[in-house]
Amino acid sequence: MFRSKAEQKVRDAGYDPARLPPGQYLTEKWPVLHAGSAARYRDLSTWTLRVFGDVENEIELSWAQFNELPRTSNVQDIHCVTRWSKFDTKFEGVHWRELAKLARPNPTARFVIAHAEAGFTANVPLAFLEQDDALLATHGDGEVLEPDHGYPLRLVIPGKYFWKSAKWLRGIELSSIDKPGFWERYGYSNDADPWKEERYGF
Questions:
Q1: Count: domains in the chain
Q2: Structural domain range at position 113
Q3: CATH number of the domain encompassing residue 104
Q4: Are 9 and 24 in contact (CB under 8 A)?
Q5: Which residues, other chains included, contact 196 with Cβ-Cβ below 8 Å and sequence gap of 6+?
Q6: Is residue 112 a contact partner of residue 172, using CB atoms and an 8 Å limit?
Q7: In the predicted structure, residue 51 carries a pLDDT above the cut 90
Q8: What 3 state SS string does 113-155 have?
Q9: 118 lies in a domain?
Q10: Which tops the pLDDT comparison, 75 or 13?
């Protein structure tokens, strides 16, 4: 019954119900969910982003240097493990390929561990970061990201529940082995595929 009501809402909004993963419902809002308090920046002069680990050249970029990199944008659907989905969300930022040119990942690099404020981490296979719709985003829906949505920088990983898209991003570690992230250590699925409802269980 829940699934049919969810599908009907999608149809009523003019979308194809096939876009909605099982167990999800459509929202036009962008709900705010995170552990702890949102990181808040008043001065980005000391902000840096590191790329390190299984790379030839570890780098650390200032906010100004990061914003000198070529930018791109895309539109995609996002899905939260708490069962909401938001369609046609526009993101703008820098694609991983621009950072990869500088850091030069080693052939043995297969996994990414995103490092964010307050010790938060999220892990995905490197192949997901390399997808065209993956992004290190500074803007959402045409606006600078709000602090609750990850200002000044968040990861956007397509094809995964949205906890994999770490807010308040400060580092990207490449590794030859997988390392469970913050939520994975609390029992969330390591794969996080919304189409398979991989919500819990490492």
A1: 1
A2: 46-73+89-196
A3: 3.90.420.10
A4: no
A5: none
A6: yes
A7: yes
A8: EEEEHHHCEEEEEHHHHCCCCCEEEEEECCEECCHHHCCCCEE
A9: yes
A10: 75
pLDDT at 36 over 70: no
Which whole-number Å values give the CA distances from 35 to 39, 46, 136, 138, in the listed order? 11, 24, 21, 21
Q: Tally the C-alpha atoms within 13 A of residue 50's C-alpha that lie toward its C-beta.
A: 14
In a domain, 36, yes or no: no
pLDDT band at residue 35 under the 50/70/90 scheme: low
The length of the chain, given as a count of residues:
202
- Which residue matches tokens 């030859």? 176
What does the block give as tokens for 79? 């899905």
Who contacts 8 (Cβ-Cβ below 8 Å, separation ≥6)? none
The residues with which 89 forms a beta bridge, in sequence order, are 76
Strands 111-116 and 121-125: antiparallel
pLDDT at 165 over 80: yes
pTM of the model: 0.90
**Residue 174 domain flag:** yes
Q: Would residue 117 count as lying in a domain?
A: yes
Of 135, 151, 174, 143, nearest in space to 63 by CA: 151
pLDDT tens digit sequence for 88-113? 999 999 999 999 999 999 999 999 99
Q: What is the pLDDT of residue 87?
A: 96
Please count the other Cβ atoms lying within 10 Å of the Cβ belonging to residue 119: 8
Residue 135 to residue 76: CA distance in whole angstroms: 11
